[in-house]
Design a protein that fits this description.
By secondary structure, the protein is of the alpha/beta class. It contains nine helices and 13 strands. Strands 7-6-5-8-9-13-12 form a seven-stranded mixed β-sheet, sandwiched between helices. Strands 1-2-3-4 form a four-stranded antiparallel β-sheet, with no helix packed on it. It has a two-stranded antiparallel ribbon with strand order 10-11. The chain starts with a helix and ends with a strand.
């Protein structure tokens, strides 16, 4: 069932400043609740399938891109964790994002574009209330299945990162990890940051990470922008790597930027240097120069609303 806490903040993404949605249930087993959420202003109906509300609204300009993106991550939902967990550089970036978010037990946290929840699985010891939000419904199902035995309150919502279906000022903390650089235009990237600012409470802590166009990548000849239409290998169909100054400027369009650093530094993580490199990574990413070298950029911000 959809929790009362989620219903209190869930809104129609077409006009999120309107009132609450009306829930309509249908007779299904309690373990697989279905039904719909109905907007009382425009009449739009959002289906609930297996307890997960689908708040996606087709964007005419980017509908084909979003459908391909959703289908791809649905397809790789069962193997995504296995691939990433074995990558020490990627996992260093996950750890850095959660470390900077600093979730507390009383917090209401939005994990936007959470995927299969590698960041959410770092919250075990703290147990905040989490809204797991993603475009891929199979990724959300995968996450829910693997979180059933853990005592942490999670609500699951499918939707578009550029049309967050939540009322304004709903969250104490917001994390958006490794998703902004997969939006295919600058306008969409800026709008995404604006949406994050809208749903965050005044002075909320916000962490955004993105793929870095770092010195090692530039020296190795990596492209700044890459398109992989029809990609079937579990990699983004589009990626735009930002330099640290670009990333700071992007965040500053709607947020107050506290710092930008790097994570996933080019160190010898494999044995026999694994433990040493992990400790060195945690130390070095505290410094501003880490933004020149990290695989990911980590932006720590707060909402400037009074």
């Amino acid at each position: 069932m959809i929790s009362r806490a989620l219903m209190a903040i869930l809104r129609c993404p077409l006009h999120p400043n309107s009132g609450p949605l009306k829930i309509s249930a249908v007779d299904t087993p309690a373990s697989r609740p279905n039904g719909s959420l109905n907007c009382q202003r425009c009449g739009h109906v959002y289906p609930i399938t297996d307890g997960i509300p689908d708040m996606f609204v087709a964007n005419v300009d980017h509908e084909s891109f979003l459908k391909a993106e959703s289908a791809q991550w649905d397809r790789f939902s069962s193997t995504y964790d296995e691939i990433r967990i074995s990558d020490p550089i990627y996992m260093a970036c996950v750890e850095a994002a959660v470390e900077q978010l600093r979730p507390q037990p009383h917090d209401v946290v939005l994990d936007a574009a959470c995927g299969t929840g590698l960041t959410i699985k770092q919250y075990y010891a703290v147990r905040p209330r989490v809204i797991a939000f993603d475009l891929s419904v199979r990724s959300l199902h995968y996450l829910r299945q693997h979180m059933q035995d853990h005592d942490i309150a999670i609500d699951y919502v499918r939707g578009d990162l550029n049309a967050l279906p939540f009322r304004k000022e709903s969250f104490d903390k917001v994390l958006c990890a490794n998703a902004v650089s997969q939006l295919p235009t600058e306008a969409l990237r800026q709008h995404c940051i604006g949406e994050i600012a809208r749903v965050a409470r005044p002075a909320a802590r916000i962490v955004v990470t993105t793929h870095n166009f770092s010195k090692p990548k530039r020296h190795a000849g990596w492209p700044k922008e890459r398109k992989r239409p029809g990609n079937r290998r579990g990699k983004p169909q589009y990626i735009y790597r930002l330099e640290s100054h670009e990333f700071r400027d992007l965040l500053a369009t709607s947020l107050v930027v506290d710092r930008v650093g790097g994570a996933g530094l080019p160190l010898p993580y494999r044995n026999p240097f694994g433990a040493l490199s992990t400790g060195l990574e945690r130390f070095l990413r505290r410094f501003p120069t880490s933004a020149d070298w990290g695989h990911m950029l980590v932006g720590v911000c707060h909402n400037g609303k009074n």
